[in-house]
């Protein structure tokens, strides 16, 4: 093995033919695993000369209390702003924050939770949309529930329907509904929506709220009005490109996140659509950079730093394993230059 690059847990999982979560469970000894899978993982670890991260092992035995934060992508301003709130409260209380990005990989999320259990983290925060996936829910609950029974504190951001944990729940549905009502008030009647994958709870809530607000006024969205991409800037760009290619006649486009709206703004300009003269554009979250776009983005504002602070306050106040607390945070429509009153055609 001399001269070989450092062997990772992912290498062990791949060689053993098991998931990252299963490899983590075997090597951390935290969860029961079938004997045949255990033998495969241990054999792969031996063959690859896998060495666990000594710094992580040191943390496991450290007296300094730690909080593990698992999010989809810390480079996304949505997650970064929430993490800032988490770190502020953690710092004020002498806690060390360990941050991990899953990049939307469900197995990694489960594996990171397993690792944090093994390292005896004082608390685990899950900051990211839940997946509409029963197998994922079951595997995540199998990690979270014994951790809570053992005294570990858990808080999640957004809706996790079948996970017993304290929750900070931004009002995605009501915020999107209020945005729909505001756009109707500006005279818009033809809409398109740019969404991320509809397996994510945050996408479903915002899409449901927006379509519900339109339906109350007799305006209905069909599948032809919805353009799906990844839940990031490039996904917004791709979804807006599809919208243009379809020749859609919407006068208002709603992107379910501000980051998607940033990509959409570029695509609309490249496609010869002026914002807001030809088409109005709105997002959701009110991340800091959207105020400086040209034109500045109409959006639904969430108190993102407060979301992180509330999540930390929940774990610091110490919930009970058999009970789950919910803190709801309001959303507010902020009208800016990217939307305008619809001009009547002569």
TrEMBL record:
> Know the name of this protein?
LacI family DNA-binding transcriptional regulator
Specify whether Nuclease is a keyword of the entry.
Answer: no
Q: A Gene Ontology molecular-function term?
A: DNA binding
Which Gene3D superfamilies does the record associate with it?
A: 3.40.50.2300, lambda repressor-like DNA-binding domains
Q: Which PROSITE patterns match?
A: HTH_LACI_1 (PS00356), HTH_LACI_2 (PS50932)
Please tell me the species this chain comes from. Amycolatopsis pigmentata
HTH lacI-type domain residues are: 7-61
Q: Respond yes or no to whether keyword RNA-binding is given for this record.
A: no
Alphabetized UniProt keyword annotations:
DNA-binding, Transcription, Transcription regulation
Residue ranges crossing the lipid bilayer per the database entry: none
CDD domains xrefs:
HTH_LacI, PBP1_LacI_sugar_binding-like
């Amino acid at each position: 093995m001399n001269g070989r690059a450092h062997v990772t847990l992912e290498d062990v999982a791949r060689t053993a033919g098991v998931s990252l979560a299963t490899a983590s469970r075997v090597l951390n000894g935290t969860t029961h695993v079938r004997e045949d899978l255990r033998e495969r993982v241990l054999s792969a670890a031996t063959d690859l000369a896998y060495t666990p991260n000594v710094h992580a092992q040191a943390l496991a035995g450290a007296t300094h209390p730690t909080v593990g934060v698992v999010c989809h992508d810390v480079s996304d301003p949505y997650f970064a702003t929430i993490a800032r709130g988490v770190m502020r409260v953690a710092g004020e209380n002498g806690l060390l924050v360990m941050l991990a990005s899953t990049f939307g990989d469900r197995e990694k999320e489960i594996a990171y939770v397993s690792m944090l259990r093994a390292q005896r983290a004082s608390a685990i925060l899950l900051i990211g949309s839940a997946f509409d996936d029963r197998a994922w829910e079951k595997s995540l609950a199998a990690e979270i529930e014994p951790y809570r029974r053992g005294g570990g504190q858990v808080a999640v951001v957004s809706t996790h329907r079948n996970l017993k944990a304290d929750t900070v729940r931004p009002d995605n549905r009501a915020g999107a509904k209020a945005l729909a009502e505001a756009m109707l008030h500006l005279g818009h009647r033809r809409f398109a929506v740019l969404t991320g994958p509809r397996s994510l709870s945050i996408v479903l809530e915002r899409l449901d709220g927006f379509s519900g607000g339109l339906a109350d006024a007799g305006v209905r969205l069909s599948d032809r009005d919805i353009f799906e991409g990844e839940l990031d800037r490039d996904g917004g760009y791709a979804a807006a490109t599809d919208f243009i290619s379809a020749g859609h006649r919407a006068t208002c486009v709603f992107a379910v996140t501000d980051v998607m709206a940033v990509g959409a703004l570029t695509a609309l300009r490249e496609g010869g659509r002026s914002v807001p003269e030809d088409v109005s554009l709105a997002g959701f979250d009110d991340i800091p950079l959207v105020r400086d776009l040209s034109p500045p983005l109409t959006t639904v504002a969430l108190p993102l730093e407060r979301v992180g602070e509330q999540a930390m306050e929940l774990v610091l106040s110490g919930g009970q394993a058999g009970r789950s607390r919910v803190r709801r945070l309001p959303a507010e429509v902020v009208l800016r230059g990217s939307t305008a009153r619809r001009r009547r055609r002569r």
